[in-house]
Structure to design on (675 residues):
C-alpha cells in the first residue's frame, strides 16, 4: 500500500473524488491532526440534501413503473452498459427525471382516486338499506319533533320491537330488512326522547349517521355511483400514463446509479479537510496502481504524494490471489483479515479447505448438484462480487465432493447399489459382489461407513499434514523476521516427534484393521516391529529435543528451562488439535448414513404408479434435506479446522479490508474504466 496525500483547489474536490472513484483503487481516509485553525472538515452542502431527495424519489418511482413495464423479465441481476458522461450530455438524465416526477404525480393521483372510490363504495353500501326512504337523510326533525334513522341487530323480532316503540310514544316505520338487521325511521316528540332512547337501548338500536348528505338516499347513491365511475376512469387514465412512463425504466435505473454515485461523492467529501480555497485528501492506494492514480490526478492542478506507510499508520489489507483462491477470501474475512505486512494464507488455506470439505462430504451426487447449482447460478443470476465469490467457493467444493465420492463410494449414499439390488437382482447385498457394484459401493479406496477405522486413520493423517503445514508457515515467518534460531528450535523438534509417531503408526494401524495378525507374512510383521521400535526412540528423541532446544534462544537458565517444559506441555494442545480432525470422520459418516436411510425408505412399498410417485417424492425430499443439513455442517466444521488448528500455528490477524470508494452499480456499469 501507498499512502496518498493530495493538495488541490477546493473547487476541484468533486471532480477529484469522482475521478478516484472511477479508478476503483483508492480508499479515502478522514484527514487527521487538523492542527491549523484555518483547516476544517468539509461539510455537506445543499447539493448533498438535494441529491438525497432526488434519489429517494427515484427509488419510490422505480417499483411503481416496474409493475407496468413490458420489458422482458430478467432471471438474475442485469446491468446496463452505458457511458454515464455521454448519457448526461445527451440529456437522457433530464428525460428520466421528468419521467420520475410524472410517475410520482400520477401515483399521487392514483392514491387520491383510490381513496375517492373507496369512500364512494362505502357510502353506497351504507345507503343500500335506505334507498326506499324518500326524505332527505340529513333531516333530524322539527322544532318539536325528533326524526331518527337507525337499525336493530340480529335476533330482534319485529312483532316485539314495534309495540315497544309505540309504547314509548314514538312512531316507527320499517324502511327495509335483511338477514341481520331491521332498518327503521322513528318519529317522536322531543319530550319523549329520553324514554325512547331507553327503549331502543334494550333492543340494540344503532343510530345511522349521514352527515353532509342533504339529499335522499337514492339521489346520494346515484351521486356515489357517478363518483365511482369517475374514479375508475381516472385510474384507467393514470395507468395508461404509467405504462407510457414505464418505457423510460431503463433510463431511470441508470439515473438512480448516477445519483447514488453523486451521493457517495458527497459522503466521501466529508473525509476531506479544507481552507477557504484549498483542500487536502488522504487515502491508500495499492502499490501496483500508483502510476495509474498519478496519471489520473495529473489532469488537475494539484500536489500529489504517494509514500510508504510508517509505523504509526494503519494501512488497509488487499489480498491478491488467483481465481481459485480468491473465491475463499471471504472465509478469511469471516475470521479476520491478516495484519498488514504479514503472510496471506488464502492460497494454502483454500487448498486445505477444498480437500477437507470433500472428505467431510464425499459424495458424487451431492457434489454434482452443488457444482451445477453454484456455477449455474453465477452464470444465470450474475450476482454481486461478494455473493459470486461465495457461490464459486461452494462450486469448487462441490468438485472436491465428487472427487472424494469416487474415491470413497458415495453416489447419493448407496443409491446405485440399492437400485441394482431392488430392480436387477431382487435381493440384498448381491450388487456389491459384482465389479460394477463393488466400485459404486466402495469407490477406488474404501467406504467410510464400512471401514470407519481406516477413514479415521486417514483423517488423522490429513490433520497431521495440515498442522505441519501451519507450523512450516510459522517457521518461515519467524525466519524472515530475523529470529532464525528460534524458528528452528520452535518447530523442528516437534517434527522429529511427529516422525517417531508416524513410524509407530503402521504397526498400530495394522493391529486395528487386522483381527488375526498371524495371517500376515513374518517379514512384514518383523519390519513393522522394527519400524515401531526405531520410531519409539525417535519419538523420545523429539521430546528431548523439545526440552533442550525449545528455549535455546533464551538468555537465562530459568527462561530456557521454563520454555522447554512449556514446549513439552504444549504437546497436549497438539494432541487435542490432532484429535479435532476426527470430525472429518463424523461428518462423513453422518452424510453417508442419512443418504442410505433415505434410499432405504425410498424402496419401502414402492409398487405401482402411485408407489413410484411416492418413491420419487421421498427420494427427492430426503436427499435435498440431507444436502442442506450437511452442507451447513461441513462448511462450519471445515472453517473451524482452518481457524483454530491451522491459523493458530502462524496467523497474525487484525487487518482492515481494503475498501476502495466505488461508483454505484446496482443497475448499470461503465463499459470500460474512464479513469
Amino acid at each position: 500500500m501507498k499512502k496518498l496525500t493530495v493538495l488541490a483547489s477546493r473547487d476541484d474536490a468533486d471532480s477529484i473524488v469522482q475521478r478516484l472513484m472511477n479508478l476503483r483503487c483508492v480508499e479515502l481516509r478522514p484527514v487527521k491532526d487538523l492542527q491549523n485553525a484555518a483547516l476544517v472538515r468539509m461539510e455537506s452542502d445543499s447539493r448533498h440534501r438535494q441529491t438525497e431527495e432526488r434519489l429517494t424519489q427515484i427509488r419510490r418511482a422505480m417499483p411503481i413503473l416496474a409493475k407496468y413495464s413490458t420489458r422482458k423479465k430478467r432471471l438474475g441481476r442485469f446491468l446496463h452498459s452505458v457511458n454515464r458522461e455521454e448519457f448526461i450530455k445527451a440529456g437522457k438524465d433530464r428525460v428520466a427525471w421528468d419521467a420520475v416526477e410524472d410517475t410520482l404525480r400520477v401515483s399521487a393521483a392514483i392514491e387520491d382516486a383510490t381513496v375517492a372510490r373507496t369512500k364512494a363504495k362505502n357510502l353506497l353500501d351504507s345507503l343500500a338499506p335506505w334507498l326506499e326512504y324518500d326524505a332527505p337523510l340529513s333531516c333530524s326533525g322539527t322544532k318539536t319533533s325528533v326524526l331518527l334513522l337507525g337499525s336493530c341487530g340480529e335476533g330482534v323480532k319485529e312483532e316485539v320491537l314495534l309495540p315497544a316503540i309505540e309504547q314509548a310514544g314514538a312512531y316507527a316505520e320499517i324502511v327495509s330488512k335483511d338477514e341481520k338487521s331491521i332498518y327503521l325511521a322513528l318519529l317522536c316528540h322531543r319530550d319523549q326522547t329520553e324514554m325512547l332512547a331507553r327503549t331502543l337501548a334494550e333492543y340494540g338500536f344503532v343510530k345511522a349517521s349521514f352527515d353532509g348528505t342533504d339529499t335522499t338516499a337514492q339521489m346520494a347513491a346515484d351521486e356515489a355511483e357517478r363518483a365511482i365511475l369517475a374514479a375508475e376512469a381516472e385510474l384507467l387514465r393514470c395507468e395508461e400514463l404509467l405504462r407510457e412512463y414505464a418505457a423510460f425504466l431503463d433510463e431511470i435505473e441508470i439515473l438512480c446509479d448516477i445519483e447514488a454515485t453523486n451521493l457517495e461523492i458527497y459522503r466521501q467529501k466529508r473525509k476531506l479537510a479544507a481552507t477557504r480555497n484549498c483542500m487536502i485528501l488522504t487515502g491508500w492506494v495499492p502499490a501496483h496502481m500508483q502510476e495509474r492514480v498519478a496519471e489520473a490526478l495529473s489532469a488537475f492542478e494539484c500536489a500529489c504524494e504517494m509514500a510508504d506507510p510508517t509505523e504509526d499508520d494503519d494501512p488497509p489489507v488487499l489480498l491478491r490471489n488467483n481465481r481459485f483462491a480468491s473465491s475463499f477470501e471471504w472465509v478469511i474475512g469471516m475470521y479476520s483479515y491478516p495484519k498488514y505486512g504479514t503472510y496471506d494464507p488464502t492460497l494454502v488455506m483454500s487448498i486445505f479447505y477444498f480437500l477437507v470439505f470433500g472428505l467431510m462430504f464425499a459424495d458424487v451426487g451431492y457434489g454434482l448438484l452443488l457444482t451445477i447449482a453454484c456455477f449455474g447460478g453465477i452464470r444465470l443470476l450474475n450476482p454481486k462480487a461478494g455473493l459470486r465469490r461465495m457461490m464459486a467457493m461452494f462450486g469448487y467444493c462441490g468438485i472436491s465432493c465428487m472427487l472424494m465420492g469416487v474415491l470413497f463410494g458415495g453416489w447419493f449414499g448407496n443409491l446405485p447399489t440399492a437400485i441394482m439390488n431392488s430392480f436387477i437382482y431382487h435381493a440384498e447385498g448381491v450388487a456389491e459382489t459384482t465389479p460394477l457394484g463393488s466400485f459404486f459401493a466402495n469407490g477406488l479406496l474404501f467406504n467410510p461407513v464400512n471401514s470407519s477405522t481406516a477413514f479415521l486413520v486417514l483423517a488423522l493423517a490429513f490433520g497431521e499434514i495440515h498442522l505441519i503445514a501451519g507450523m512450516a508457515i510459522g517457521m518461515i515467518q519467524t525466519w524472515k523476521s530475523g529470529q532464525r534460531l528460534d524458528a528452528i528450535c520452535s518447530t523442528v523438534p516437534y517434527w522429529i516427534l511427529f516422525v517417531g509417531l508416524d513410524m509407530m503408526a503402521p504397526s498400530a494401524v495394522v493391529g486395528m484393521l487386522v483381527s488375526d495378525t498371524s495371517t500376515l507374512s513374518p517379514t512384514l510383521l518383523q519390519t513393522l516391529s522394527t519400524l515401531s521400535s526405531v520410531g519409539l526412540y525417535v519419538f523420545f528423541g523429539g521430546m528431548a529435543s523439545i526440552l533442550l532446544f525449545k528455549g535455546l534462544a533464551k538468555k537465562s537458565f530459568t527462561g530456557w528451562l521454563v520454555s522447554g517444559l512449556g514446549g513439552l506441555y504444549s504437546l497436549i494442545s497438539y494432541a487435542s488439535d490432532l484429535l479435532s480432525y476426527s470430525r472429518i470422520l463424523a461428518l462423513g459418516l453422518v452424510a453417508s448414513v442419512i443418504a442410505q436411510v433415505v434410499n432405504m425408505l425410498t424402496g419401502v412399498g414402492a409398487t405401482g404408479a402411485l408407489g413410484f410417485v411416492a418413491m420419487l417424492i421421498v427420494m427427492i425430499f430426503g436427499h435435498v434435506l440431507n444436502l442442506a443439513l450437511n452442507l451447513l455442517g461441513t462448511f462450519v466444521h471445515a472453517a473451524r479446522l482452518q481457524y483454530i488448528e491451522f491459523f493458530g500455528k502462524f496467523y497474525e490477524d487484525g487487518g482492515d479490508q481494503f475498501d476502495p470508494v466505488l461508483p454505484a452499480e446496482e443497475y448499470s456499469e461503465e463499459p470500460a474504466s474512464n479513469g
Observations:
- The CA atoms of residues 129 and 178 lie 8 Å apart.
- The chain has a mean pLDDT of 90.
- The first helix runs from residue 13 to 23.
